[in-house]
Amino acid sequence: MTELRLNTGDIPHWRSAPRHLYLAPDALHLWRIDTSEQGMNPHDAWQLLTAAQRTRIAALRYPVHQQRSIRTQAGLNRILAKYLQCAPSEVVIQRQANGKPYLDGEAAWLAFSISHSHELALVGVSAGVNAALGVDCEHICPRTNYLAIARRMFTVDQLASLQLCSESDRLEQFLYAWTALEADVKCDGRGLCRARQRNTEPPQIAHLIPAAGYLAAIARAQLPPRASWQYLECAEC
């Protein structure tokens, strides 16, 4: 299992997006979206959504989840629109049979992955050969069922390492393994319950702390050096 290193001093510096944004081949841009009440005004954000996004959000049961989803999807549209040079509401996101979102047609050169948890959403954007990526973000909070999830989803070795952890370290170790697994399966879109295709190499995976109280993992066939990653804030992006 991964050595514990949840330290708020490791949070990267997130900056406002420049007016002219350039995504070099094989580069990695990470975007942070505030989905709390301090984020985008839901009414304004609603105007940036497509009909399909509005339909999915309307099906959510609780208003708080609806508002967070509105901010998440509006932020995603704003981000992708910057690269595609179009209006946010003109971004057309397709979904594979397993639910993995993607862009096609003239926008197919741009790969992205999105994850949201509690009051934060994280978007990874990439381009170039083997640009497919997976992003997972998890809110760090008390959980009662994570060992049951680990027994069902982790490898024998991962589960054994988790059970050897002290009680105080166990949740963090679980989150390191869980975010890595989620990012991995989102990278190739196979889903949590399917094995990797034969003769395919697993992606490279790296962790980061996007904000205090959160842990994230990024998966891509080949990750660029961490020093080259760009951390961008989607406030008025």
From TrEMBL:
<keyword id="KW-0808">Transferase</keyword>
<protein>
    <submittedName>
        <fullName>4'-phosphopantetheinyl transferase</fullName>
    </submittedName>
</protein>
<comment type="similarity">
    <text>Belongs to the P-Pant transferase superfamily. Gsp/Sfp/HetI/AcpT family.</text>
</comment>
<dbReference type="InterPro" id="IPR050559">
    <property type="entry name" value="P-Pant_transferase_sf"/>
</dbReference>
<dbReference type="InterPro" id="IPR055066">
    <property type="entry name" value="AASDHPPT_N"/>
</dbReference>
<dbReference type="GO" id="GO:0008897">
    <property type="term" value="F:holo-[acyl-carrier-protein] synthase activity"/>
</dbReference>
<dbReference type="InterPro" id="IPR037143">
    <property type="entry name" value="4-PPantetheinyl_Trfase_dom_sf"/>
</dbReference>
<dbReference type="Pfam" id="PF01648">
    <property type="entry name" value="ACPS"/>
</dbReference>
<dbReference type="Pfam" id="PF22624">
    <property type="entry name" value="AASDHPPT_N"/>
</dbReference>
<dbReference type="InterPro" id="IPR008278">
    <property type="entry name" value="4-PPantetheinyl_Trfase_dom"/>
</dbReference>
<feature type="domain" description="4'-phosphopantetheinyl transferase">
    <location>
        <begin position="133"/>
        <end position="194"/>
    </location>
</feature>
<dbReference type="GO" id="GO:0019878">
    <property type="term" value="P:lysine biosynthetic process via aminoadipic acid"/>
</dbReference>
<feature type="domain" description="4'-phosphopantetheinyl transferase N-terminal">
    <location>
        <begin position="45"/>
        <end position="122"/>
    </location>
</feature>
<dbReference type="GO" id="GO:0000287">
    <property type="term" value="F:magnesium ion binding"/>
</dbReference>
<dbReference type="GO" id="GO:0005829">
    <property type="term" value="C:cytosol"/>
</dbReference>
